[in-house]
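Aim 2, interim progress. The first record below pairs a target sequence with its C-alpha cells.
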Amino acid sequence: MSKLRVGIIGAAGYTGAELIRLIDAHPYLELKFVAARENAGQRLDQVIRSTQGVDGLGELMLERFEEGDALQIGKKIDVAFTALPHAASARLGGALLDAGVQVVDLSADFRLKDQALYEQWYGQHPRPELIPQAVYGLPELYRSKLQGAQLIAGPGCYPTSAILPLAPLIKGDLIELDQPLIVDGKSGLSGAGRKPAQGTLFAESGESMRAYKVAGQHRHTPEMEQELSVLGSQDWKVLFTPQLAPMIRGILTTTYARVKAGVSAAQCREAARDLLQGPLISILPEDTLPDTLHVRGSGRAQIAYAIDDRTGLVLSIAAIDNLARGASSQALAAFNISRDYEEATGIPRLAQYP
C-alpha cells in the first residue's frame, strides 16, 4: 500500500511536534510538508529538536503558507493536520479543503455547530459554510460519522476528559436532570502552548496550583454543553473550573452529578463499557482510580466511577494526556477511522512509565 502524503500546518507547537512523532510511526503516512509562520525558512530539526538525525524528517524546511498557496500545496499532500490558532485554521484549512485535501483540524474552528455561538466566544468565523460539513472527532461517540469524513474537528482536551466519562451517565439516564454538571479539570502546563508567558514559567508554576477562567469564562464550556446535550433529552449546563497543575502533560478531570436513586457505581461502569467501546479507552474496575502518569504519552483514556452515598453524587474521573488523547493522537485516531484503517494505527497504547 502506498503511503498517504501528510502536511502539518502549525508544526512548530507542542501539538505539531506530537503529530510529527505519531505520523513518523504510522505505517500508511509520510510527512511531506510542514508550515509555521514564525519559523518559516528554518529546518524542522532546528525548531523541533527531537527530529535531529532522523533521515527524511529533520531536513524538511518549514514554509510560510497562505490561502493563495493552497492549490500548489494540494498537489503535494493528501491530508493536512491544522494546528493553528482559531480563525487561521478555518481560513487555511478551508483553502486546502477547497483544493481537494482532507483536513483534520485541531483548533476550535469547527467544533461548535452554532455559528453565532462560535462568534460569541471566538469572533467572526472565516468559513461558516463549512461548519455543517465537519465531523466531531471523538471516536467512541462519532465512529460511524467519521467514516469517509473530509473535514474532522478535533475535540478540545478538557472537553474530551469531561465528555467521555459523562456521556454514559447521560445516555444511560443514570443522573438527575435538574442540576448543572460540575467539571473540575487539572491540566499540565503544555496545554498553554509553546510561546513563553509569565504564567507558565517554571518559577511561576513549578510549585503552584491555580484556577483560571472560572465561572463560565472558559471557551471549552460551550463545547462540553453542546456535546453532552445531544446525548440526552435536555440541554445541559456545565460549571467548569480549569486549573493549571505543576506537570508538563496530562489532564485529570473529576465531574460531579446527582445520581438517580438506586443507581450503583457498577451500573455506571457497565454503561461506560457499553457506550465507550474502542481500543484507546479503559474503564477501570472498582477501587482503581485514573492517574495521569499511567496515560502519559499514550493515546488512551482512563475512566472510573464512584458514588458518595452521603451526598447522592456520582464522581466520574478521567485521565488523559492533553497533547495525545486530548489533541494529536485523538486527531490521528479520527483520521484512521475516516480512511478505514484500524483505529489505533500509529498511536502508542502504553504510557511512558515511569
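The second target in this work package is listed in the same format:
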Amino acid sequence: MGRRGRGRHPVFDASDPLLDAPVDAELDLHGDSASEAAARVRTFLANWRRRKPGAVVHIITGRGKGSANGPVLLGHVKTLLQGELRSMVAEWRPDDANGGYRVRLR
C-alpha cells in the first residue's frame, strides 16, 4: 500500500473570524422590554452601519436568568436579525457566552 493518508490528520481550527474580530461597539439590552429592545437594536444597527460599514458589534441580551418566564430578548433579537434587519447584517453568531450576538454589518 502507498502512503495514502498516512501520518496526516485533519486540521481542526476552532477559530471564527466573526467571534474573534475586535468589537467596534456594544449594545446592552439588560432590563429592556421586547419592544424597547427592538427599537434600540434597529437604531443601533442603522447608526453603526452608516458610521462604519462592515463594523462588528456586540448585542448583549442576557441569558434570561432574571426573566420569570425564561429568556425573551435572546430569541427576539435572533428573530430581528434573521428577518426584518437582515438587509443590514452581513453575518451574525451567538456570542461565546450565549447571552447575545456578534454581528457584522453590511
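The chain has one domain: 30-105. This observation will shape the mutagenesis plan for the next reporting period.
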